[in-house]
Structure formats: structure tokens, C-alpha cells
UniProtKB/TrEMBL annotation:
CDD domains: IscU_like (cd06664)
Transmembrane segment boundaries: none
Family: Belongs to the NifU family.
GO biological process: iron-sulfur cluster assembly
The protein's name in its UniProt record: SUF system NifU family Fe-S cluster assembly protein
Domain of life: Bacteria
Coiled coil, from the record: none
Domain spans labelled NIF system FeS cluster assembly NifU N-terminal: 10-128
Amino acid sequence: MALSKLDNLYRQVILDHTNHPHRKGVLDEATSQIELNNPTCGDVIQLQLVIEDGVIKDIRFDGSGCSISMASASMMTDAVIGKTEKEAIEIIGSFLELVQGHDVANKDDLKDAQLLSGVAKFPTRIKCATLAWKALERGILQQERTTVEGQLHTED
């Protein structure tokens, strides 16, 4: 019975992030803008970052997609705001491992995003959960802070 209550809590947190997303909107002074889509299901995310002195000072997302995609984007913003680029890349790596069903050492760094570990049981939903995280990774790794567009999981 306790597991059922825990599952309900997880679902409630995911629904809360879907219905009341954190940091959804547009940044006027973004230093990096990334748009990615998941051609498999039609999820689209536009991510904007303000990175100063190697630190994510602000982050916003917009887009459309399933509840997993939008909740994951909201959770991601909570996990990386105020982090250095290096810390954010490590958090991204942990999340990508988590949704593949692997154990991760620094699970607490993921904050609410650790609740998406169950996505590993539904391989078709992994791309939904990772869309925003892949956009963030591209935004951090790009050399010049310009708009980057692309599709998720084409050949990367």
C-alpha cells in the first residue's frame, strides 16, 4: 500500500510541474537560445539561457508537448539554475543515465527530476523526458551564444 501512495505522490508532482511549470516564458536578454523538437511525437521546446561567468543566471523554456516533456523541462530549470556550466553538464549526465534505468550517485542534485526515473520502463517516453535536457546541453556546449535549432535524437 505504501508504494501506491508513493506512486500517487510522484504522479502529483509531475502533474504539478505540468500544470504550473517553473520558469516558463521568454527571456529578453538571453545569451543562448536553443530550439529542439522530437519528431517522434511532436514535442517542441525553446530554451533560453543567461550564462554569465560560467554560471546559469537565468533559464526559461517555452514550447508544447506531452506532460512528461513539459514537466521534465520545468524540473530541469529547478535543477540547474545557479549552477556552473560544469555542474549543469554533470546533472544532465545523471538525468540521462537515470531515465535509461541506471543508478546515479548524485540523485539529489536532480531535485524533482529524479521522480522521472520511472520513464525507463517506457522507452518511447525517454525522448520526451530528455528533450529539454538535450537542449540545455547544446546551449551550454555551443561555442558562440547564438540560436541553435535541431531535432532530438537524429544521429546524436
